[in-house]
C-alpha cells in the first residue's frame, strides 16, 4: 500500500481513477435512467408543521441546535423532491412534502431575520408569535401555535397538516442535543418518522429513544441523562393525576380514573419533544379548552405539579386512549465514507472501464452531491505525510480552494509499518499542524464537542502522545476548543485492551474498530467492556467488502442480494443498541464504511460499471427506514 501511495501517474499530467461507466458518462443520470424509477411514484405533496417554542433562542448555542434540526428537515424535503435525480434500486420513494414553521420568540428578537433564515432552510411559510413573559413555558406556547394552525386551515383553502414536530429551547444542552438528534438529527431520521406516521396507523407518536417514561416498566427505558433529573416514575404521574383528570373531564365531559395503574399504563415523553400524526392529537379539543386553561398557567418555574405539567403528561395519555403507540427512534447514524486519494492508473482499475479526473471540480462536485443524496454524513480522507509534506493530498487541497466536494469531512492519518518517530521534533510537529489547520477551521470539518476529529491509523503502536498533546496546545492557541483524536484499531485488535493509563493511548478521545458482524459484538457484551474502560467513546465500521474483485476467490464473497441484509443489520441494530448505551454520547454516532472509491481493492460505494447505484441504494434505503422501538416491555425488559 505504501509503495502504491508513492507512485505517480504516467502518460498524463493529471491523476486519474476509474470512471463509473466510461469517460463520457456523467454522474447525474439521463431522463431515460430516471424513467426506470418513477413508476408508481407518489405525486401528492403532504404538508407538515414544525411547532417551535423559541423563548430562549437569543442563546446562540440553543438557536444553533434548533436551526440544525430544521435544516435537516429541509434536507429531507430536498431528498424527497429530488428522488428521481438518481436511478436508485429497490428504494421506496419518500412522499414529497412542504413544511410550515410556527415559532414563538421574545419580543426583542428580530423576527424578519428569523423568518429569512427559516425560509432559506426550506420552510414554505413562517409564522411568528412574540412573547414577553414565558407563562406556561413551552406548553402554553405550543397550544397557542396549534390554535393558530387550526384557525388558518379553517379560514383558508390550505390543506390540513398530516404530521407535526414539536421542539423547544430546552436549556440543558446534553438533554436537548440527544433529543433533537433522535428526532431530527439527520434527514434519514426525519424521513423515517414521516414515512412511519404516513403508513403505520397503529403508530401515532414518535419520541426520542430513552426519553419515554412508561408506568408499567419504571425507569428501565430511560437514559441516564433523565434518570437523575426526575422523581420515581410513579411520582411523575401521581403528582399530576388530579390535574390530568380535570383536563380530561373538561375535554370529554366525563370522568376518568387515571390512578388505576392496572387499567391505564400511562406514558410520558420526557422533555416534551416529539413527532405526531396531526389527526391523532385531538387538536380541536385542546383548542376548545384553552379559555379554561387561560388563568391556570404558571408564571414562575416549578419542577412539577402545575397545570402545564399535567397538560404535557396528557399528551402521552391521548395516544394510549386512542389505541395508538408511542414509538421511539434512536440517535442518528452518521455514515462516513472513506475517501481514498488518487492513486496511479493500475491494470485492475482499467478493466473496470474508463477513468475520471479527481482534480476536475465537476467530478468532485458530483461526488459530494451523490454522497449526500444517498445519506452519507461525510467523507474521511486518507491523509499521508512524509518528509514534512503531504503526499497524495490533491483532493482535499483543491477542496479548500473551490469548495468541492461540498460535504462534511475529516482526516485519517495513515501511518505505515516503516514509519518511525524520527520526525519527533516540535518543529516537525508544528509544520504538520500548520498544514492541517486550514482544514480544521473549514466550515465542513467534522467536530465532536466543537473539536475537529482526527483519526490516526497506525501499523505500529508508536507513542504519539507528546505530539498529540503539543497539537492540542497549538489548537487552543489558534482558537479551537481542542482536537478529538480517534485511534483506529486493526481488525484483529481488541478495543477492550485500550486503557487510558497506557501512554500510547493517553491523548486519544475515542477508538474506531471495523467489524464484519457488529450486531454479534454488541449482543455478546463487548459494548460493556467499552463502557467500563477509560476510553470514552467507541466508533464502529463495517469490514472491507471485496465483492467487486476480479479474483475468482473474492468475486462472490458478498453477493449484492446479501449485502442489503448485512448492511441493514450493520447500520440499524448498532443504532438501536448504541442509542441506549447510557455511557456513550449518542449524538456522535459515526459509522465508517470502506470505501467510497477504493478502486485498487475494488471496494467501492460510488457508482460503478458493475454495480451501478446498488451500493448507494442499500445505504439510502437503510438510513431512511431506521428501526423503531414499539414494544418497550419486550425491548427493555425482555418480557
What features would you describe in this structure?
- This protein has 639 residues and is of the alpha/beta class.
- It is 37% helix and 18% strand.
- It has 23 helices and 24 strands.
- Strands 4-3-2-5-9-6-10-24 form an eight-stranded mixed β-sheet, with helices on both faces. Strands 11-13-15-17-18-19-20-21 form an eight-stranded parallel beta barrel. It has a two-stranded antiparallel sheet with strand order 1-12.
- Strand 13 and strand 14 (389-391) form a beta hairpin.
- The longest helix is centred in the N-terminal third of the chain and has 22 residues, at 60-81.
- Residues 1-42, 344-354, 517-535, 544-558 and 574-586 have low confidence and may be disordered.
Structure keywords:
globular; alpha/beta; eight-stranded mixed beta sheet; 23 helices; single chain; 639 residues; eight-stranded parallel beta barrel
Amino acid at each position: 500500500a505504501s509503495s502504491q501511495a508513492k507512485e505517480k501517474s504516467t502518460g498524463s499530467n493529471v491523476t486519474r481513477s476509474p470512471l463509473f461507466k466510461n469517460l463520457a458518462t456523467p454522474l447525474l443520470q439521463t431522463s431515460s435512467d430516471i424513467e426506470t424509477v418513477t413508476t408508481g411514484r407518489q405525486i401528492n405533496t403532504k404538508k407538515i408543521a414544525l411547532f417551535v417554542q423559541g423563548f430562549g433562542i437569543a442563546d446562540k448555542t440553543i438557536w444553533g441546535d434548533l436551526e440544525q434540526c430544521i435544516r435537516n428537515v429541509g434536507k429531507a424535503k430536498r431528498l424527497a423532491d429530488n428522488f428521481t435525480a438518481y436511478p436508485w434500486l429497490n428504494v421506496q420513494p419518500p412522499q414529497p412534502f412542504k413544511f410550515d414553521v410556527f415559532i414563538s420568540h421574545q419580543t426583542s428578537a428580530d423576527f424578519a431575520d428569523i423568518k429569512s433564515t427559516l425560509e432559506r432552510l426550506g420552510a414554505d411559510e413562517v409564522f411568528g408569535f412574540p412573547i414577553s413573559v414565558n407563562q406556561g413555558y413551552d406548553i402554553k406556547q405550543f397550544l397557542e401555535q396549534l390554535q393558530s394552525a387550526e384557525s388558518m386551515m379553517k379560514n383558508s383553502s390550505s390543506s390540513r397538516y398530516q404530521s407535526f414536530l414539536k421542539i423547544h429551547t430546552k436549556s440543558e444542552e446534553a438533554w436537548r442535543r440527544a433529543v433533537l438528534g433522535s428526532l431530527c438529527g439527520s434527514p434519514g431520521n426525519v424521513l423515517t418518522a414521516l414515512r412511519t406516521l404516513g403508513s403505520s396507523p397503529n403508530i401515532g407518536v414518535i419520541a426520542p429513544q430513552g426519553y419515554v417514561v412508561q408506568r408499567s416498566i419504571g425507569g428501565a427505558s430511560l437514559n441516564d441523562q433523565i434518570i437523575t433529573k426526575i422523581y420515581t416514575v410513579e411520582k411523575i404521574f401521581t403528582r399530576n393525576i388530579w390535574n390530568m383528570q380535570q383536563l380530561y373531564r373538561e375535554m370529554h365531559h366525563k370522568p376518568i380514573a387515571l390512578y388505576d395503574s392496572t387499567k391505564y399504563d400511562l406514558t410520558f415523553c420526557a422533555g416534551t419533544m416529539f413527532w405526531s400524526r396531526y389527526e391523532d392529537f385531538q387538536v380541536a379539543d385542546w383548542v376548545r379548552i384553552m379559555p379554561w386553561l387561560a388563568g391556570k398557567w404558571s408564571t414562575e418555574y416549578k419542577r412539577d405539579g402545575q397545570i402545564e405539567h399535567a397538560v404535557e403528561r396528557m399528551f402521552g395519555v391521548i395516544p394510549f386512549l386512542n389505541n395508538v403507540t408511542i414509538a421511539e427512534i434512536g440517535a442518528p447514524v452518521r455514515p462516513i465514507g472513506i475517501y481514498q486519494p488518487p492513486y496511479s492508473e493500475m491494470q485492475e482499475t482499467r478493466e473496470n472501464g474508463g477513468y475520471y479526473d479527481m482534480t476536475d471540480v465537476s467530478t468532485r462536485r458530483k461526488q459530494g452531491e451523490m454522497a449526500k443524496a444517498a445519506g452519507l454524513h461525510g467523507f474521511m480522507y486518507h491523509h499521508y505525510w512524509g518528509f514534512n509534506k503531504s503526499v497524495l493530498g490533491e483532493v482535499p487541497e483543491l477542496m479548500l480552494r473551490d469548495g468541492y466536494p461540498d460535504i462534511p469531512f475529516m482526516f485519517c492519518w495513515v501511518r505505515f509499518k516503516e514509519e518511525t518517530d524520527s520526525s519527533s521534533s516540535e518543529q516537525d510537529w508544528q509544520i504538520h499542524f500548520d498544514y492541517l489547520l486550514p482544514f480544521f477551521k473549514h466550515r465542513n470539518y467534522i467536530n465532536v464537542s466543537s473539536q475537529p476529529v482526527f483519526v490516526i491509523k497506525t501499523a505500529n503502536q508508536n507513542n504519539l502522545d507528546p505530539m498529540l498533546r503539543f497539537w492540542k496546545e497549538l489548537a487552543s492557541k489558534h482558537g479551537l476548543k481542542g482536537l478529538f483524536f480517534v485511534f483506529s484499531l486493526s481488525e484483529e485488535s481488541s478495543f477492550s485492551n485500550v486503557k487510558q493509563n497506557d501512554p500510547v493511548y493517553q491523548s486519544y478521545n475515542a477508538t474506531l474498530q471495523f467489524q464484519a458482524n457488529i450486531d454479534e459484538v454488541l449482543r455478546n457484551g463487548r459494548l460493556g467492556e467499552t463502557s467500563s474502560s477509560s476510553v470514552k467513546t467507541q466508533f464502529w465500521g463495517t469490514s472491507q467488502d471485496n465483492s467487486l474483485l476480479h479474483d475468482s476467490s473474492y468475486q462472490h464473497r458478498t453477493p449484492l442480494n446479501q449485502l442489503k441484509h448485512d448492511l441493514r443489520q450493520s447500520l440499524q441494530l448498532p443504532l438501536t443498541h448504541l442509542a441506549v448505551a447510557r455511557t456513550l454520547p449518542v449524538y456522535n454516532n459515526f459509522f465508517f464504511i470502506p470505501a467510497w472509491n477504493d478502486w485498487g481493492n475494488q471496494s467501492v460505494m460510488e457508482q460503478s460499471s458493475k454495480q451501478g447505484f446498488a451500493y448507494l441504494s442499500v445505504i439510502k434505503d437503510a438510513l431512511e427506514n431506521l428501526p423503531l422501538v414499539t414494544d418497550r416491555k419486550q425491548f427493555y425488559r425482555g418480557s
